[in-house]
Amino acid sequence: MKFALVLSCAVGAQASQHEEGKCGDDSKWNYNIYAPETSGSYPVMLYVTGGGGGVGGGAYSDLADRMAAKGIIVTVLSRLAAPAPEKDADLESLALTWLEKNYDTLGLTATADFDKLLLAGHSAGNHVTCSFLRDSCGNQKAKGVVMMDPVDGYDPFGFINTYCTTPGQKLNFDVPALLVRTGLDPKVNLGVACAPDRISNQRFFDAWSGPIWMANATKYGHLDVNNAGTAKMGSLVCAADKLDNAPYQEHIAELVEAFTNTIFKADAAAESRLNDASWMKVDVELQHDMNGHGAPFNAGCTLKSVLV
Fold first, then answer.
1. Which CATH superfamily does the domain covering 30-303 fall into?
2. Binning pLDDT at 50, 70 and 90, where does residue 149 land?
3. Which of 97, 52, 66, 86 is nearest to 3 (CA)?
4. Strand ranges of the sheet holding 30-34, from the earlier edge strand across to the other edge
5. How do 40-48 and 110-122 pair as beta strands?
6. Does this model's pTM top 0.85?
């Protein structure tokens, strides 16, 4: 069962499934919106796809449906353009502004609570989100971050040295985060890994300033967040397993639910789940760092004046 109405729209074009949903001329994104079908007020997730937004949003529909079923309005952002993280961070800011202005016109049952905003992404989409946070804490509105297989930059060979993080330094923003990754992320396939160790996952974890929880699904691959067909095609490039990715996607959705309950409800039981592998649906290795923060883990983003 689908737990979402899917809205897709491009610049200046009407939404394909709701005529009142029109993207702003400055947004330059395609929007795929997945919302709970039952009435109520829900947190909002702004999710930038892999390749810095270059992967079509529809490739994430199964995962987005699962997260929507847990009570989150998931807006997947994608755009067919060459990766440009700093420019795309500015465009993500415009996308958030567009969504706040237009959400109520889209005819969705679920009410969006923009005071509970999560910024999220997959692979190099996290570089865009990281830049957005570094510049403005997500228009001063981000309350939490969900990173999936985060890659800093978009050149796995390291020739283009455009990074949001710097080894040995903490980022200039402080915000709670959940980082989900896979064991096959750094595995070389066709001469390159889709998430090389030196520019992915642990690099973000070590640079984070706020409370952060990381779960490594050791048997899965970089594209298992995508729909099965996309993941299978992508296995030609990214190292892949032969496992059904549905349990992994449900695992992610349950982790995101536990994370949101931790930061938005100060739910101690939910926070305990983030540190307990016994209930999780797949084999995982867990890591967390409170970075000097104590419970309860309050949602919110604070910019620091200098890197430390």
1. Alpha/Beta hydrolase fold, catalytic domain (3.40.50.1820)
2. very high
3. 66
4. 30-34, 73-78, 40-48, 110-122, 142-148, 177-182, 212-217, 284-289
5. parallel
6. yes
* Residue 215: strand pairing partners: 180, 286
Are residues 151 and 128 in contact, defined by beta-carbon separation less than 8 angstroms?
no
Residues whose CB falls within 8 Å of the CB of residue 175, separated by 6 or more in sequence, listed in order:
133, 137, 142, 143, 144, 145, 209, 210, 300, 301, 302
pLDDT tens, position by position, 23-36: 554 568 899 999 99
| Max CA separation in the chain (angstroms) | 49
Residue owning tokens 């995101």: 256
- The H or E element that residue 69 is part of is helix 61-69
Return all residues near 306 (Cβ < 8 A) that are at least 6 apart.
Answer: 172
From 165, 120, 133, select the one nearest 255 (Cα to Cα).
Answer: 120
Kindly report, residue by residue over 230-264, the tens digit of the pLDDT: 998 888 889 999 899 999 999 999 999 999 999 99
Query: Which of left, alpha, beta for 53 (phi over 0: left; psi -120 to 50: alpha)?
Result: left
Chain centroid, CA 208 distance in Å: 15
Distance, CA of 45 to CA of 162 (rounded, Å): 25
